[in-house]
Structures are given as structure tokens and as C-alpha cells.
From TrEMBL, chain A:
Keywords: Cell membrane, Membrane, Transmembrane, Transmembrane helix. The lineage of its organism: Bacteria, Pseudomonadati, Pseudomonadota, Alphaproteobacteria, Hyphomicrobiales. It is a multi-pass membrane protein. InterPro entries: ABC_transp_permease. One of its GO terms (cellular component) is plasma membrane. Pfam families: BPD_transp_2. This is Monosaccharide ABC transporter membrane protein (CUT2 family). CDD domains: TM_PBP1_transp_AraH_like (cd06579). The chain crosses the membrane at residues 16-34, 55-88, 94-117, 124-143, 163-184, 215-238, 244-262, 269-288, 300-322. It comes from Shinella granuli. One of its GO terms (molecular function) is transmembrane transporter activity. It is found in: Cell membrane.
UniProtKB/TrEMBL annotation, chain B:
The keyword Transport applies. SUPFAM superfamilies: P-loop containing nucleoside triphosphate hydrolases. It is found in: Cell membrane. It comes from Shinella granuli. Belongs to the ABC transporter superfamily. Gene3D superfamilies: P-loop containing nucleotide triphosphate hydrolases. This is Monosaccharide ABC transporter ATP-binding protein (CUT2 family). Keywords: ATP-binding, Cell membrane, Membrane, Nucleotide-binding, Repeat, Sugar transport, Translocase, Transport. GO terms for molecular function: ATP binding; ATP hydrolysis activity. GO terms for cellular component: plasma membrane. Its main location: membrane.
């Protein structure tokens, strides 16, 4: 088989799940294109990409974390806090805003890594705590309200402008995904991350630097959440301390839809992107249905749907695994 | 001297596992490290390689004082270790497992082609040709062990440590391993070899270090240490002679409890017929790949029987899954005990009685008194070395974990118990205890189907032995015809 096709070779139930998510994505696109007039309009496509790039970024960080067998619940809080930091830094220079937001994310990621590897606290608990801390810090810094960004330094270009006809956030997400793919598939550290997810104790016995690698993964997840926060602030013109609620769920759902096992040890960057796009597409289509006047969905209902979707996927995944492992 | 460990002590939660133990290894020598289950062999190795930190003592490696903080450091210093527990990443491919942490790179990226070639090349020296792109979990215990060995020998280490490397290998594979060890030796590499099979130790080792209760009790060249003396050092007492356990009488024709006829599935099991009578130990012999384990899996419903019939207590049955077989009173202690079956974080008590819990319930609540009674009985009967029944099983030595799993099935009171290599990884003192226990249970009416690669074990304990060759039952020897020569010639039988 050519190396080009290798990612699509079906060797395990994970591959099957990955293939089905790609098919489902195309199915949904086709459905939308046939059913709604403006679905394939450039306006819809571009705003779809612009908005969902943020989610794609945190989904990638989450994918790495989940591959190690962990979880990062702090991404939403981190993004919210980072958006505030970015907004506060944006008057100095657009790059100050960008770096400030990322630095805020790195800080939370570093803290997560420290608590999990050095203090040996379960990732679930550790990141739940830092999620609350991040939200709190964001609200404190923002004085409980959204913080307008500077429009003079060009900071808003990051989230609002296009480059070669595509939104800059989409370019950023694309670049980061290519990087993520390289790391996971081509660099030794990617294989180590997979092996650690396969069994931490074993990986240690095999001579891998487990703690250092885990810390790096949480750091990366934090940085990506920070970057998502920067885009959030830049796109909506304000740091939003109360945004980000439920983002971790969206990210987890994307990762799981992409065929990555919650138990760790397997996963794919490409399929995570497909998972994120699929999930985003579902909401895009629901919006169009809203527009047609058939149904009317509040944000609350969207949450319910997101949760239900995640549940269905996890159940399907468990069933698929059971069938695959049966002799 | 390549390695010198002196005065090593280590306590877990106040209980001493090592007490001023020592170990010295010269370059290019094979050092046997022996001792009963729980003597502290694996702990000593884990202290050397940075898995555990020592409480006291000093370690010098290659002329330098060392104190490795983690296995990665020991590996970097030139020590490759095959730990007793399976130490491979199951979902990663064979090639990746062999190279993990030392991946061949091109321009900073993994060179997958080189990795595949390297893996194939080293496995070829072991006469193993498998698809190295497949996850390790897809292969059987023996292959995984060979992969772990391949991983260790490709590290260009100065010291290779093998903690019970042969426990899932058959004779042919052991021969290949020994050839590898000799090659290592020729290139100046030292090997520490931990094992319970004396013949193997005498065949490959130059010197021996004997441990008992966390202490080093003897060191000597292998040639100067007669077997009896070695065992005496190990146990701290004389070993009662390994006497025949099966009564040397004409076996009365007791009723058949379990019988399979012309059973087959796939290519591994072609045509197997065997019977297990009430109150007897029926042996199942054969070379590796002769289909012994596969036959056991068929009977147990773990694999689907495609041809032939199975009769349990006179009724024809067809088991779709193990639960059906268990409901009929059949138990299986698998050979893969290292991986299958133990729940590492649960206590000995829980691990021993999980299969039993439904029966232990009184008004929906676990009858603690009966549970205690069973657990205490088997801890004593099998000589399980532990601090208390509530200790997590992962804290036991490898051999003692195996005993807990054996006890789990014994405690379910099955009418037919299939044991696949029951004494694997178990020390020589406890080995005859286990055989005696099986014998006693058989005398009380249990039917045992015992798969074993050790002829002396079959000769000592079995009432009859069915011999498999190439997935076909080629002989059924009753007690009176059971001799080593008869077994060997039947095993070597080639099906035309
Ligand atoms: N992590 C741990 N926590 C508590 N006790 C432990 C731990 N590891 C080992 N022990 C105890 O230390 C003692 C020595 O165990 P070790 O594994 O070194 O034995 P061993 O000589 O390798 O035996 P075997 O032949 O069965 O493998 C045992 O009593 C064991 O229960
Ligand atoms: Mg051991």
C-alpha cells in the first residue's frame, strides 16, 4: 500500500471509527448542500471555518492528552482567561496580545503538568481544579466583565481577517494540525506519547521519560487553549471571561468521534480534525434548521445535544472495541 | 568487575523485602540469580535499574558509583532489562516496541523503514518471522517474550538482565535464547539470568547467586554448586524428594466426566480426542505449537469448536463462550497468567474470590467469614508469601501472583479444572506443593486436565497422558505405560 494511503488502511476498530467519521462528515456536507440554499455559500463556509478553528485547536490538545490516557477539563477556563489576558495586552502590540494569551495558556498547562506528574493527582481532579482557578483568574483580571481589545495595534486582524481568501484562524489551525500530525506520526516523542497511553508503568520500564512527556503534553494543551483564547478575543473584539463553558466537552467529543480511545494508547490527528469538523457541522446544520423555522434551539439545547452526541459515540466505541477484542 | 551491589536493603511499608543483599557480576559472564518466590530477586533488579529507590547500600557499575533515578537512566548507562512482568506497549507495533526510546531517525524524524528492517533482522536471528507492523497484543505470550528479548539485545548494552525470560518459552525457543546469550557473552556482554528451572540454569550460567528472604546466602561458580546444595541454600532446608504422586495402581475405569471427540478448529487443532475421568489427573503433552493451549480454549468455549463433539458428564454440549463452560463446572487457569486475569490494584482477597462472589453472597452481601476462611486456606495451602490478604496483588512477587490466580480457580470448586502450565514461574519448593494439592483435589473427585511441558511433572502426577502432535492426538498413555521414553517418542511423532 502506498504511504499516502497508509493512514486509511483499516487495521483496527480505531481505523474503522476514523473511516466512518470521514464518511459521516461528507454525508452531512452533502445533506446540507442539498437541503439549504446558502449552505455552500462562501459566507457560510468562511464563517464556519473562522469560528470553529478555536474548537479545532483545543480538540487537538485534548487529543494528545487523551492519547496519554488523561483528560484536560481546564481548556475552556484557560481559553476564557487567555482571552482576557490577550485583550489586556493587545494595546501594546498585536504580538503582545498573541503572546500574552499563549503565555496564560502555558501557565495553566505547566500547572496541570506539575500537579499531575509531581503531586500524582488524577488528571480529572487536577484539571477540574485548574479549570475553576482559570475562570476565577479571568474574572478577576477582567473585573467581572468583558474586556475590549485594542483596535489600533492590528490585534483584531488575527481573528477577523483573511489570508489568500481564507480566515487567518483557519490557517493557524491548519498549521498547528500539520505540526501535530508531524509530532504524533513522525517524531519519536509522538510514539512515546502513544506508548505512555498504552500503560504508564510499562512505558517507564521501557526507558521512556514518562513524567517529562506527560508534562509536555499538558503544556501543549494549555498553549493551544491559550491560542484559542487569543482568537476568541480577536474575533469578537473582547476578552470574554465567561466564554469557554462546555468547550472541554466539545473537545472531548471531537476527539472521541475521531476514533481516539478514552482509555488511551491510540488516536490520530487527522481523525480528530474530522471529528471536530463533524461536530461543528452538526451544529451548523442545526443552525440552518433553526433558520428554516422548523425547530428553534437555545444554547441550552445545544448543550444537551452535545452531551447526547458524546454519549452515543462513547457507547458505540465501547461496543466496537468489545466486538474487535472478541476472539 | 562490571557490577557490584553491596548491602542493599529495601522495605515496602515497613516490611523488609531486601536485607543487606549483594550481587556481583563480571564482564562476559552469565550470572544465575535464584531464590524462592518472594526471595527478593526482582526487587534487587528493580533497585539496580531505578524502578525503586534503595533504603541502604551502594551500587557500582562499570567502575562508577551509580544511583539511577529511573529505568531510562539505567538504560542510557548500558543496562538492558527484561522485567518479569510483560514490559511492552501492547497497542504499538512489534517494530516500535523493539526500538521504543531508541528510534532510528532521519532528519530528526522516525525512519519507519529502517525500524521495520531492524526489527525483522533481529527477529530473524531468533528464527521468528512475523509481521512487525502488527500490534504486540496480537501475538501469543511466547512471541511477546521473544520481542522483549529482541528489544533487550538490540540495545547494545553492557549488561542484559533477564527476569524469568523462559517462563513462557518452549524448549526450542529456549535453545534459541541460549544461543543469543552465548553470542552476547562472546561480545563481552554480561547477563543476569533469573529462573526457576534448574536444568536451564546449569546449562547456561557460569556463576550463581542464591537469595533467601531478602538476603544473599551463597555465591559460587555454577560447576561447584551441586543441585542438591543449591536447593538447600534456596529453601534453607532439604527438599523432600520429588516422589511420584499418582498412585501406581491400575486406574479403575471410573466414569468419564469430560470427553471430546475429533475436535477441531482452524489449523491449530485438527483432530483431538481425549477423555478426563472423575477423580483423575489427565495430562496433555506435546511440543510447542502442537495445539495444547488451543485445545484447552476449545473445551473452555474461548474459541469456537468447528468440528467434533464435546460431552460433559454424558451430555453433548456446545459452549459459545467461557461463561457457558463455567456454568457447567469447568475452570481454566490459563498459561498467560502474567497478563490475563489479575487486577493489579485489587487485594489478594478480592483477586482470589472474584469468580466466587456470587456464591459467597448471603442476602446480597458478601459473607466475609466464609471469604476469609477460603482466602486463609489457600494462602496456607499454596504458601503464598504476603503481608496480609488485603495487600494489593501487584505488590506480590511474580510467583506469588500466580499462586493467587491458581487459588482463584481452585476455590470455585469446579468439576473439571484445566490447568495450563500450572507450575510455571513457581519455585521448586512450591512446585511439588501445587502438584500435591492437585493430586489431593483429584482424590476428592475433581477432574484435572493438566497441560505441561515438563515431563517429570506429568510423570509424577498424571493418571494418563494424551499426547498431541501437530493438532492431532497421537497417543493416550495410561499410567502403567507412562515412561519418559514413551512420552518423548509420542511427542516426536510426525503426522504424515
Ligand atoms: N511494590 C511492592 N510493594 C510491597 N511489597 C513488595 C513490592 N514489590 C515486592 N514486594 C515484596 O517483596 C518481596 C520480594 O519480592 P520479589 O518480587 O523481589 O520476589 P522474587 O524473588 O522476584 O520472586 P518470584 O520468583 O516470585 O518472582 C515479596 O515479599 C513481595 O511481596
Ligand atoms: Mg520476581
Amino acid at each position: 500500500m502506498s504511504t499516502l494511503l497508509r493512514p486509511f488502511a483499516i487495521k483496527s476498530s480505531g481505523d474503522l471509527a476514523r473511516l466512518s467519521v470521514i464518511l459521516a462528515l461528507f454525508g452531512l456536507i452533502l445533506f446540507g448542500a442539498l437541503r439549504y440554499d446558502n449552505f455552500v455559500s462562501s459566507y457560510n463556509i468562511l464563517s464556519f471555518l473562522r469560528y470553529n478553528s478555536m474548537f479545532a485547536l483545543i480538540a487537538l490538545g485534548m487529543a494528545f492528552v487523551i492519547i496519554t490516557g488523561g483528560i484536560d477539563l481546564s481548556v475552556g477556563g484557560t481559553a476564557a482567561m487567555a482571552s482576557v489576558v490577550a485583550a489586556l495586552c493587545s494595546p501594546y502590540h498585536w504580538a503582545a496580545g498573541l503572546l500574552g494569551g499563549i503565555a496564560a495558556g502555558l501557565a495553566v498547562g505547566a500547572l496541570n503538568g506539575f500537579i499531575i506528574t509531581k503531586m500524582r493527582i488524577q488528571p480529572f481532579i487536577a484539571t477540574l481544579a485548574t479549570m475553576l482557578a482559570a475562570y476565577g483568574t479571568g474574572l478577576l483580571l477582567a473585573n467581572n466583565q468583558s474586556v475590549s481589545v485594542s483596535y489600533d495595534t492590528g490585534f483584531t486582524v488575527i481573528g477577523q481577517d483573511d489570508f489568500l481568501g481564507f480566515p487567518i484562524p483557519a490557517w493557524i489551525a491548519l498549521a498547528v494540525y500539520v505540526l501535530g500530525w508531524l509530532v504524533l506520526e513522525k517524531l519519536p516523542v509522538g510514539r512515546h506519547i502513544l506508548a505512555i497511553g498504552d500503560g504508564e508503568a510499562t512505558a517507564g520500564l521501557m526507558g521512556l521519560k514518562v513524567e517529562r512527556t506527560l508534562a509536555a503534553v499538558y503544556l501543549a494543551s494549555g498553549a493551544l487553549a491559550g491560542l484559542a483564547g487569543v482568537i476568541l478575543a480577536s474575533q469578537f473584539g473582547a476578552g470574554q471571561p465567561t466564554e469557554g463553558v462546555g468547550w472541554e466537552l466539545f473537545a472531548i467529543a471531537s476527539v472521541v468521534v475521531g476514533g481516539t480511545l478514552l482509555t488511551g494508547g491510540s488516536g490520530s490527528v487527522g481523525a480528530t480534525l474530522a471529528g471536530a469538523l463533524l461536530l461543528a457541522m452538526v451544529f451548523n446544520i442545526l443552525n440552518f434548521e433553526n433558520g428554516l423555522g422548523w425547530i428553534s434551539l437555545s444554547a441550552y439545547w445545544q448543550s444537551v445535544i452535545r452531551g447526547t452526541f458524546l454519549l452515543i459515540v462513547v457507547v458505540l466505541q465501547a461496543k466496537l472495541m468489545a466486538r474487535h477484542n472478541a476472539p | 568487575m562490571l557490577l557490584s551491589m553491596q548491602g542493599i536493603s529495601k522495605a515496602f511499608a515497613g516490611v523488609a523485602a531486601l536485607n543487606a543483599a549483594s550481587l556481583e557480576v563480571e564482564p562476559a559472564e552469565v550470572m544465575a540469580l535464584v531464590g524462592q518466590n518472594g526471595a527478593g530477586k526482582s526487587t534487587l533488579i528493580k533497585i539496580l535499574t531505578g524502578v525503586y529507590r534503595r533504603d541502604e547500600g551502594s551500587i557500582a557499575f562499570a567502575g562508577k558509583e551509580v544511583d539511577f533515578a529511573m529505568p531510562a537512566d539505567a538504560q542510557a548507562a548500558g543496562i538492558a532489562t527484561i522485567y518479569q512482568e510483560i514490559n511492552l506497549a501492547p497497542q504499538r507495533s512489534v517494530a516500535e516496541n523493539i526500538h521504543l526510546s531508541r528510534e532510528p531517525k532521519r532528519f530528526g524524524m522516525i525512519d519507519h523503514a529502517a525500524m521495520r528492517r531492524g526489527a525483522e533482522a533481529v527477529l530473524a536471528t531468533f528464527n521468528l518471522s512475523i509481521d512487525v507492523d502488527r500490534p504486540v497484543a496480537h501475538f501469543d505470550a511466547a512471541t511477546r517474550q521473544m520481542v522483549a528479548i529482541a528489544r533487550a539485545v538490540t540495545q547494545n548494552a553492557r549488561l542484559v538482565i533477564m527476569d524469568e525470560p523462559t517462563s513462557s518459552l518452549d524448549e526450542r525457543e529456549v535453545a534459541v535464547l541460549f544461543e543469543t546469550i552465548r553470542t552476547l557473552k562472546r561480545s563481552g556482554v554480561a547477563v543476569i539470568f533469573i529462573g526457576h528451572r534448574l536444568d536451564e540454569l546449569y546449562a547456561i550460567c557460569d556463576r550463581v547467586t542464591i537469595m533467601r528472604d531478602g538476603q544473599t546466602v551463597a555465591k559460587s561458580p555454577m560447576a561447584d554448586m551441586p543441585k542438591m546444595a543449591l536447593v538447600r541454600h534456596m529453601l534453607g532446608k532439604e527438599l523432600a524428594a520429588f516422589q511420584a504422586l499418582a498412585p501406581d495402581r491400575e486406574t479403575p475405569e471410573r466414569p468419564v466426566r469430560l470427553a471430546i471427540e475429533n475436535a477441531g478448529a482452524g489449523v491449530r487443532v485438527r483432530d483431538v480426542s481425549l477423555t478426563v475421568r472423575e477423580g483423575e489427573i489427565s495430562g496433555l503433552a506435546g511440543l510447542l505449537g502442537s495445539g495444547r493451549t488451543e485445545t484447552a480454549r476449545l473445551i473452555f468455549g474461548a474459541d469456537k469448536m468447528q468440528r467434533g463433539t464435546l460431552r460433559m458428564e454424558g451430555r453433548e454440549r456446545s459452549y459459545r463462550e467461557p461463561a457457558d463452560a463455567i456454568a457447567d463446572g469447568i475452570g481454566l487457569v490459563s498459561e498467560d497468567r502474567k497478563i490475563d486475569g489479575i487486577v493489579p490494584d485489587m487485594s489478594i482477597r478480592e483477586n482470589m474470590t472474584v469468580a466466587l462472589l456470587p456464591k459467597l453472597k448471603k442476602a446480597g452481601i458478601v459473607d466475609r467469614a466464609r471469604q476469609d476462611e477460603i482466602v486463609t486456606r489457600y494462602i496456607r495451602a499454596l504458601g503464598i508469601k504476603c503481608a496480609s490478604p488485603d495487600q494489593p496483588i501487584k505488590e506480590l512477587s511474580g510467583g506469588n501472583q500466580q499462586k493467587v490466580l491458581l487459588a482463584r480457580w481452585l476455590a470455585t470448586d469446579p468439576r473439571v479444572l484445566i490447568v495450563d502450565e500450572p507450575t510455571r514461574g513457581i519455585d521448586i519448593g512450591a512446585k511439588s506443593e501445587i502438584l500435591k494439592l492437585l493430586r489431593r483435589l483429584a482424590d476428592e473427585g475433581l477432574s484435572v486436565l493438566m497441560i505441561s511441558s515438563e515431563l517429570e511433572e506429568l510423570l509424577a502426577a498424571a493418571d494418563r497422558v494424551t499426547v498431541l502432535s501437530d493438532g492431532t492426538s497421537v497417543a493416550a498413555l495410561p499410567r502403567k505405560d507412562l515412561t519418559e521414553a514413551a512420552l518423548l517418542s509420542a511427542m516426536a511423532h510426525q503426522v504424515e
